[in-house]
Every structure is written in structure tokens, then in C-alpha cells.
Amino acid sequence: MRFNTCNYSVVIDLQSAEFCLHQNQIVALERALALIGSVDPTFAEICALKNGVLRYESIALLPPMTNVKKQKVLLVLGNPSISSVTSGMIFYARRDGGRHGFWTKLARAHLMTPVADDNRRRESDNRRTKLLDDDVSPHYSLGITTFYSFPTPGSDDQPYCGSAGVEKIFEPVLKQIRLMEIRRLLRHPFIDGSILIFTRKSLLKHFYKTTGIKPVHWPIRGEASSGEELARILSESNKVITSATPLLF
Fold this sequence. Notes:
By secondary structure, the chain is an alpha/beta fold. It is built from 9 helices and 7 strands. The strands form 2 sheets. A 4-stranded parallel beta sheet has the order 5-4-6-7. Strands 1-3-2 form a 3-stranded antiparallel beta sheet. About 35% of the residues are buried.
């Protein structure tokens, strides 16, 4: 694990009673992982499947301590890209090395003060430190995580990219995977009392159907994805209370 403050490990026994994958299904999963590794050699550094046990690294940027005077905001993205995990930073950079537009939108929403540096590595490290130290805004405590923890390629022209790729890889046990991820989200203390924002509507629906807790939706691409729209959502949304929600699944 490179960045022990934000990277975390996941271990899934795919042959356990909960998942119960057959050998032919595990072989199919091995092929999918091999295909991902063939286009991104760094994938092998963060993911391995051996004897039916899947181990991989993921990432979440959640400050361990927050200022009680600030409003917590939890952004839940689809899933991390491989480069996010290996670099220790979500939306580390654009493909051309430039600053990802996601951070500009957060700045326009006054959710995070701008972080700028000519060196993308230094900028990323500084941004990560500010997030984990709860030092991104005088008004908000910001946490960023993903619904699916499994990392996939971030580019649309690569196999199994994005959260749709996760759903294809784990199709035989997708229900179990979703329940596992929802339990992870609910068990982290940052979510309680936060304004909970999902960037993917389909995943929002799964979360709401399972928990009865309804997040708000802000897409990070396309229509209604501007920082100004995010600012409006923040001003009109109520915080969620999860501490009173029993885990019945």
C-alpha cells in the first residue's frame, strides 16, 4: 500500500458462502483481470487473484477528524481508476497531464479552495493533504469515495472501464458486491451527518433501494455538471443521518 492515509485493501473470498463462485466463473474473472493487465501493467501491482481469493487496493479520501462547525459533504463517485489508486489521488490528472476539470468544478462550488502547482505530483500531494487534514474550505469538510471499490481503467477506449466495467466483471455476484460496498459506506463515520452526493444516478438508486437513505445527484459530466449547479445542490440539500440506520443486510 503506497499511501496508507487514503489507500486501503480489500480481500474477497470468491468461493465463500457469500459469493460462491464456481471454478469456471473464477476462470472467466481471471481472464478479465488478465485483459486489464495487458493494457495497464500497473494493474498487477494493486490486484491479484489466487486460489479463488481476490485482493486489491482501492482509495478513499476521508478526513479522519473534522471540524464540527463545518458541514460534511461526501461525494460518492462510481469507482476508482487504476491510476487513481497507484498515484494515491482521485482524478490525479487528465490524460494529457493537465489538471482534471473535476477540481475546477469543486472550486466554483466553493466546496474546495483551488490548489495549483506547475508540478502535477506536488499539486496532487498538496490536495490530498488538504483533504485528509480537513483543510479544503472554511465552511465544508469534504470526503471523496467511490461506490464500487474495485479499480478499472479510466479511459473509455480500454477494456472494462468505469463502473460499467466493474458490473460486467462481477456480474455473477453483483448483488453481493453491491451489498458489500453499501455496508462499507454506512460503516464509515464520515457519512453520518453529511450531505451525501452520488455522481451516478443508477448507483444512487441501488443505495436508496437498499438503505432507504436518499442521496442527491450531481453528475460530474454532461448537463447539470457545473460547479455552479453543485453549489445550488449544496445550498438546498439536507444532511443524512445514518447512525440510526441498522444494518439489516
